[in-house]
Amino acid sequence: MKKTIMHLLSFFARSIVEKYNPVVVGITGSVGKTSSKEAISLILSCQKRVRSNFSNYNNEFGLPLTIIGLKSPGKNLFKWVKVFVFATNLLLFKDKNYPEILVLEMGVDREGDMDYLLKIVKPDRAVLTNISHSHLEYFGSIEKIKKEKVKLLQGLKKGGVAIINLDNDFSKDIKDNLKNLVISYGINSEADVLARDINFVLPENGVKNNFYGINFKLEYKGSVVPVSLSGVISISSVYAILSAVSVAISLEFNIIDLINCLKNFKNPTGRMNILPGVKNTIIIDDTYNSSPESSLIALDFLEKIKKTKNSRRIVVLGDMLELGNYSEDGHRLVGEKVAKIGVDEIILVGERARDIGRGAIDNKFNKELIFHFTNPEDAGLFLQDRISENDVVLIKGSQGVRLEKVVKEIMAEPEKAGELLVRQTDEWLKK
Do 243 and 95 lie in a common domain? Predict the structure, then answer.
């Protein structure tokens, strides 16, 4: 039954794209896909009808469902029939409100995944956000991860444009081997679309009624435009904005007219969001997922937050999954970073996370200030008793560790968890 549904979804999605001929923006990368998807959708929707993936609909089921415009009915066969009736009607009759642009996150976990997705839809614009150790367990090497993700750029339609993060060590050389036009973005001065003079305005003494965010200058071909993002505090958000501007440039949008749209940009839930915590504390919620590379970025930001006499910096770090034979080294690398930035306490969740503690201890972190738990519930209860006014708490782990449960335990407004936290659907809450 699963194969039949996949086949039908693929058929209808291909047929719908062929009929309506929307501009397709495909996005792939080890990290940063969703933030880029949100930024690209936001900036393009100022002038066009845009649809992007629902939630994490970026695989062989989610991608065609996004193209069709419906969410998954799960295991309900009758509702699947309704999906295919809806898709048939899209083909038989013209829907004047069908999106002009589809912004599609295209996730790959294993070799061959991108080949299947490209059989469903080929992009007019292809964005590569980053290549890192995520899913290394299933690929075996960074080179194989790179090869799979680069297929999106190689699968561009004739006349398509590839958009590449020039700052990523594993992707910056790709542009030299592509036949299509390439637009690069980054903080690296050689990038086509450049962010410079980045300034973080950090929260102090609590979150409420305090402005915080990022200011930077956006530069392209000698033109400079100031950008201000309120409530957005990660360097990853800057990269998301740069990818969005690059797509807009490739589609000949007037960038100055679109900058105002960016004022509404917010990070997706669980991606470096600042939340008020109990006891007037500050939570940095980065619980969507984790890898060594994204952990180092989060810790870099935490280091920028000034400590006062009466505040501490605490990290809650969970297992980083799917790293394969890089697992121990990756966790130890994060532990080394934690020790170097002067964190006051480390709370670890999961068996693999013990290597974070070992990496910290090897770099002279006091082992008496490292606490380990096997589940997020116990870690959350411990943390609630442990924190005090003005503490800053960074919480990050792979999605399988469910560290959003720790955030919910210490957030000032747990009744808003459904709105502010990741994985709050009924399906996830049962796990």
Answer: yes
Count of residues for the chain?
A: 431
pLDDT in tens, 54-84: 878 899 999 999 999 999 998 899 999 999 9
Q: Is 256 exposed, middle or buried (0-12, 13-18, 19+ CB in 10 A)?
A: exposed
Task: Report the CATH number that the domain containing residue 12 is assigned in CATH.
Answer: 3.40.1190.10
In-domain check, residue 428: no
Beta bridge partners of 365: none
Residue 199: CB atoms within 10 Å: 10
- CA–CA dist 38, 275 (Å, integer): 20
Q: Do the beta carbons of residue 100 and residue 251 sit within 8 Å?
A: no
The CATH number for 419's domain is 3.90.190.20
DSSP H or E run through 401: none
Integer Cα distance of 239 and 237 in angstroms? 5
Question: Could you tell me whether strands 101-105 and 23-28 are parallel, antiparallel, or unpaired per DSSP bridges?
Answer: parallel
Residue 429 placed within a domain? no
* Cβ atoms < 10 Å from Cβ of 77: 10
Do residues 150 and 234 make contact, with C-beta atoms less than 8 angstroms apart? no
Paired residues of 270 in beta bridges: none
| Residue 306 DSSP one-character state | P
Q: What is the pLDDT of residues 319-378, one digit of tens each?
A: 999 999 999 999 999 999 999 999 999 999 999 999 999 999 999 999 999 999 999 999
Model pTM score: 0.92
Q: Evaluate whether 317 touches 303 at the Cβ level (below 8 Å).
A: no
| Residue numbers of the domain that contains 213 | 2-264
The Cβ-side half-sphere exposure at 41, using a 13 Å CA radius, reads: 22
User: Whole-angstrom Cα distance, residue 300 to residue 428?
Assistant: 30
The answer to whether residue 430 is domain-embedded is no
- 247 and 125 Cβ atoms separated by less than 8 Å: yes
Instruction: Tell me, yes or no, whether 77 and 224 share the same domain.
Output: yes
Q: Quick check: 387 and 276 in contact, CB under 8 A? A: no
Outline where 21-140 has alpha helix (H): 33-44, 62-68, 77-92, 113-120, 136-139
Cα 88 to Cα 93: distance, rounded to the nearest angstrom: 9
Cβ–Cβ under 8 Å, residues 331 and 308: no
Q: How many domains does the chain have?
A: 2
Task: Say yes or no: 251 and 371 in one domain.
Answer: no
308 within some domain: yes
Identify the burial level of 193 via C-beta atoms within 10 angstroms of its C-beta, where 0-12 means exposed, 13-18 middle and 19 or more buried: buried
